[in-house]
Amino acid sequence: MNSFNEKLFAKKKNSRWAIRPLAPEEVYTNREEYLEYLYNAAIDATGRRTMSTVLLGQRRMGKTEIFKRVVNRLVFF
User: How far is 14 from 7, CA to CA, in rounded Å?
Assistant: First the structure.
């Protein structure tokens, strides 16, 4: 591996995120219920014990941010 790839791999290895969230934790509030529900739905989906789930909302309401945080929780917890 060249030096650039080694640095990139080391950076990813030490990262706290699989997908980096954009909103800081301090301003990202009142979403724990959604995060918990989607996390549990993803865990249940591994055993095929869940139905499809849709997250609907207007633009710029934080839908993608919720999914980023659920993915990070699935990967690192």
Answer: 11
Domain that holds residue 24: 3-76
Number of domains in the chain: 1
Question: Do residues 66 and 60 lie in contact, with contact meaning Cβ atoms separated by under 8 Å?
Answer: no
pTM for the model:
0.65
Per-residue tens of pLDDT for the chain, all 77 residues: 455 445 444 445 556 767 777 777 777 778 889 999 999 999 888 888 778 888 899 998 889 999 998 998 888 87
Cβ atoms of 17 and 67 closer than 8 Å: no
